[in-house]
Amino acid sequence: xxxxxxxLAPWQWIGVPMLFCLIWTILFAIPLRVFGLQLPxxxxxxxxxxxxxxxxxxxxxxxxxxxxxxxxxxxxxxxxGLWALSLLAAYGAVLGARTMMIGQSAPVLWxxxxxxxxxxxxxxxxxxxxxTQAVPSPYILLWQFVATILLYPFSQRLIxxxxxxxxxxx
Amino acid sequence: xxxxxxxxxxLKVPLTWTAAVAVIVAAVVAIALLATDRRxxxxxxxxxxxxxxxxxxxxxxxxxxxxPVRWVGAGVDSVRGYFFAISENRRLKAELKEAHEWRDAAxxxxxxxxxxxxxxxxxxxxxxxxxxxxxxxxxxxPFANTRLANVGKEMGVKPGYPVMSENGLxxxxxxxxxxxxxxxxxxxxxxxxxxxxDRTNAxxxxxxxGGPNPKLEYMRGQNPVQPGDRVVTSGDGGVLPRxxxxxxxxxxxxxxxxxxxxxxxxxxxxxxxxxxxxFSQLVNQQELDKMPVxxxxxxxxxxIGVTAAPAAGARPAAPTVGTPAPGTPTVKPPxxxxxxxxxxSGTPVPAxxxxxxxxxxxxxxxxxxxxxxxxxxxxxxVxxxxxxxxxxxxIKPxxxxxxxxxxxxxxxxxxxxxxxxxxxxxxxxxAKPAPKSPAxxxxxxxxxxxxxxxxxxxxxxxxxx
Lengths: 170, 465
Prior knowledge:
heterodimer; A: 170 residues; mainly alpha; two-stranded antiparallel ribbon; 9 helices; globular; B: 465 residues; alpha+beta; Thrombin, subunit H; 6-stranded antiparallel beta barrel; 6-stranded antiparallel beta sheet; 30% helix
C-alpha cells in the first residue's frame, strides 16, 4: 500500500498547477484592450489553493501558496506579502473546513470556492485599508471576484484528478 | 500487509496538524514581509532587490508577449483606417479647423505670458527632457495598479519621475532597474497626487482607489468644481511639475467628485517619462541643516517681535544686539543677522526725504554715529542726511537714552538723496563724542522731536523708495 502515497508526486499536484498559474497570470498582464475595455484580472492562484487544501493536507502546499502569493505581489507591483497572506488565509480556511466540504457535489463546492475567494479578497481589502487608510473600490473588488470564481472548473478538475490518489485522506 | 495494519495509515491527524503549522509559519513570513514593505515611496532603496530582479526578468518577457498584441492592434487600426477613411477625414478636418483657432489663441496668450513673466521677473520652469518608453505589462486589480515600462536606469530613469501618455498624466516611477521601470498609476490605492481645478485654481488631492476614476479629496471653498472642469497637476510639494493634464472632473455614483483620466481615452502603450527632479531631490538637505542659528539673547524674554518691551521703570530697557531700542538705529553685526529686519541685514537703509512724513525720515536706521554710545545730553548729533553708517558704534549697545542724537528735528534735516547719505563719510565731529564743546544748534535741544520720541522701531523696516 505504500504506492498509495507515492503516487501523489508533489510536482504533479503542486508543481504543474503552479506553473499554469504563473503562465496565465503573466498572459493576462499584457496591456490589451478590446473595444476600449481592458481584460479582467482574475486571481489565477485561487483555484490551486482551493484544490490543494481539498486534495490532502500537506507541508509543501502552504509553502507553494506563499511562493504564489509573493509572485503575485512582485509581478503585480503590490505590497509584498499582501496576496501571500490573503491566499494563506484562504488555504487555512479550506484546510480547517475540509472535513465538511469533502465529498460534496461540484455546485456546492463552487459555492464554497466563492466563499473562500471572498475571504481572500476581503483579507486583501482589510490589509489595504490598514496600510493606506483608503477603501478599495467595491466595483473593482466585485469585478475581480466574479472573474475569479469563474475559474472554479479548473479547481474541480484538479480535485477530481488527485482526490483519490491518497486514500488516507478520503 | 493490510492497510489498517500499516503504521503510516495513522498519520492523518498528525499530518493535518503539521500542515496547519506550515500554514502558520508561512503566514508569519508573509506578515513580516508585509510589515517591512515600503512600496509607493520615491526612495530608491525602498524598491527591494527582489523586485528589481523580477522586473528585469518580467520586462523582456512582457515585451515579447505584448508584441503580437501590438501587431494585431496595428493591423486592426489599418483595416479600420481603410474602411473609415472618409468619415475620419471629415472628423480630422473639423478638428483641424478648431485647432487653428486654438493655435491663434495660444500664440497670443504665449506672447502675453512671456511679457508678463519678463515684467514680473518670474522664475519660469526650465523645459523638462523626456524619455520614451513602451508599456509591457499592466496590472488592474483593486490592490495594485502598476505598469512596467521597458526602459530603466540605463536611460537615466529615477524613482519619482512623472509618466505621461500623449493624452495626460499616467503616474510616476516607483522602481527602477536595468531595462525596466515600475510605474505607479494614478488609480493605485496608494497614489496621492496634488492637483488643482484649472478653472478655479482650487487645490485637491487625487486619491486612487483601484478603480478607473480616482477621487478628488480635500477640496476647499464653495463650489470649487463643476462637472467637466479640467484637472491639472498643481505642482504643490514639488513632486510633480505644475500644469500636467490629468483629466476632467465628474460626479461619481457614490456622490464623490472623481476624475475621468485623460490618459484613459486611448490605450496606454507608449509613454513619456519626464526627467523631472522633484524639489526634495534638488535641495541640499545638509546645507539646509547648516543654517546658522542666532544665539539666544539675554533679553529675549523682554522682546515682542522686534519691539522692545517697555521696562518696569520710566526709562526704556537698554537695547541689546537683538533688541533695538525705540528710535535707536543700530546696525547689527552680520554674524548675528538672524533677525529679519533691515537693520539686521547689515545694509542700513539711508535716509529718504519725505516731506509728507518727516517722522519717518529721522527714523531710518542708516546714520548710527558714535555719539549714539554716549549719553544723549552730551551727544553731538549729526543731521541725518550727512551721517554715514558707523558700524563700529552701532555694534555697541546704545544706552537707554541714546535715541536723541539720531532724532534730528524734521525741519532741519537736509533732504539729501539716499545714495549720498549712504556714501558720505562720517564727519570727525560726529564720530567723536564732544562732551564739552558746544553742541550744534540741533543738538542743543536735548529733547528729541516729539515725532521721533516714541517712534517704534518697526519704522526701521520701511523700505527705501
